[in-house]
């Protein structure tokens, strides 16, 4: 069956042959492997560890944005968007764990670390031997990252870290994390480290029971006099904001890409249901104006959001910034996915409300994307801040 996301504009959505090949391989994998296990892991709130490791060991989907000279694939943000879009059509939760590993750790770590740190950790995370994540959000400081209270003190040949991180994707399954802390609780500067789950003083707190993204583990991370070697400092002390902000841009476009995948799958399901299978009063459901409006608006909004996300993806890299575009793409795409997935539930009626069909799960999953990686309210604030710089 032809799906609505089948591409004809290869210059925007897959600008090179490498992008075309990547989409084909990821799409085939997602349809065959992710779809059949998604319902089970959503219901049990489990994590498909063996399948996740295959992303690295068999499919080579880790290290996408890392230069080939250092064991990666040397691709760009567009490639990362393609992967997140295709995988999210079938299991957004599993894809969220991929994002936490590949974007929040691997990409973030690579462009913040030195060569010696690369040698110690890159092979393990690119192969999938180790799973990574990032520790930023705290119980009392979510969007307000400068309000974090996790505190670091240097003692001899160690840093001692105390604090708690909240809502950490891959927290219970990860072996290595990029961690953001403060050397001075009142300062507006942050310091980052690469830490391992085996460090003395590291522990995993409670696992969250969530509305959606249930196949992706979310936990607290607790640090009680956690000892971190000096050589695990990323960059220099009080310099973490720069690489944090750089990484936020690719995080936001990949979260937006997850929204695209959710919407694309929901539109396919709506069309299949209303145009091929469901009849009412002797006519296909798609013959009724109310249903036509839900499907047509969904497709138009999805198409517009998709063009924006891919355009922004082509404008960001480790050397180029587009804060305004990244915030705009996330704001538009995440709101769109919530509307489209809700419309899918409505078009399918009782079928859409039941867990036998995936649209109710996709709708639940879509809601997190308006919260994670900076809330949509924060995106609006960021957009205004960037526009003020233009119009000042």
Automatic annotation (TrEMBL):
Its cofactor is FAD. Residues 16-129 form the Acyl-CoA dehydrogenase/oxidase N-terminal domain. Transmembrane segments: none annotated. Residues 134-226 form the Acyl-CoA oxidase/dehydrogenase middle domain. Belongs to the acyl-CoA dehydrogenase family. It comes from the Bacteria. This is Isovaleryl-CoA dehydrogenase. Keywords: FAD, Flavoprotein, Oxidoreductase. SUPFAM superfamilies: Acyl-CoA dehydrogenase C-terminal domain-like (SSF47203), Acyl-CoA dehydrogenase NM domain-like (SSF56645). GO terms for molecular function: 3-methylbutanoyl-CoA dehydrogenase activity; flavin adenine dinucleotide binding. Coiled coil: none annotated. GO terms for biological process: L-leucine catabolic process. Residues 243-384 form the Acyl-CoA dehydrogenase/oxidase C-terminal domain.
């Amino acid at each position: 069956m032809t799906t609505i996301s089948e591409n004809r504009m290869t210059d925007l959505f897959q600008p090179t042959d490498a992008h075309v090949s990547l989409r084909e391989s990821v799409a085939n994998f997602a349809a065959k492997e992710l779809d059949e296990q998604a319902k089970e892991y959503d219901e049990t709130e489990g994590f498909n560890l063996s399948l996740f490791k295959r992303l690295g060991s068999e499919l080579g989907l880790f290290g996408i944005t890392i230069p080939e000279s250092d064991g990666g694939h040397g691709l760009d943000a567009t490639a990362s968007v393609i992967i997140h879009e295709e995988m999210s059509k079938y299991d957004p939760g599993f894809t969220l764990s991929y994002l936490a590993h590949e974007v929040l750790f691997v990409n973030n770590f690579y462009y913040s670390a030195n060569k010696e740190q690369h040698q110690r950790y890159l092979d393990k995370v690119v192969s999938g031997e180790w799973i990574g994540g990032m520790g930023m959000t705290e119980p009392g400081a979510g969007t307000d990252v400068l309000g974090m209270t996790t505190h670091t003190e240097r003692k001899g040949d160690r840093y001692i870290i105390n604090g708690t991180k909240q809502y950490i994707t891959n927290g219970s399954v990860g072996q290595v994390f990029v961690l953001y802390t403060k050397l001075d609780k009142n300062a507006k500067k942050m310091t980052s480290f690469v830490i391992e789950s085996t460090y003395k003083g590291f522990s995993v707190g409670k696992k969250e029971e969530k509305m959606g993204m249930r196949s992706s583990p979310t936990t607290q991370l607790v640090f009680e006099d956690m000892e971190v070697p000096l050589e695990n400092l990323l960059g220099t002390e009080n310099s973490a904001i720069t690489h944090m902000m750089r990484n936020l841009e690719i995080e936001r476009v990949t979260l937006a890409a997850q929204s695209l995948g959710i919407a694309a799958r929901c539109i396919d399901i709506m069309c299949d249901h209303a145009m091929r299978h469901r009849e009412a009063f002797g006519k296909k459901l798609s013959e009724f104006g109310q249903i036509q409006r839900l499907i047509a608006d969904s497709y138009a909004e999805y198409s517009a959001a998709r063009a924006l996300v891919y355009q922004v993806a082509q404008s960001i890299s480790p050397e180029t910034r587009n804060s305004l575009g990244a915030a705009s793409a996330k704001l538009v795409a995440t709101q769109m996915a919530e509307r489209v997935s809700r419309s899918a539930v409505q078009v399918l009626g009782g079928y859409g409300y039941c867990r036998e069909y995936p649209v109710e799960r996709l709708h639940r999953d879509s809601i997190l994307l308006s919260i994670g990686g900076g809330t949509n309210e924060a995106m609006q604030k960021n957009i205004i801040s960037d526009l003020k710089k233009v119009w000042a």
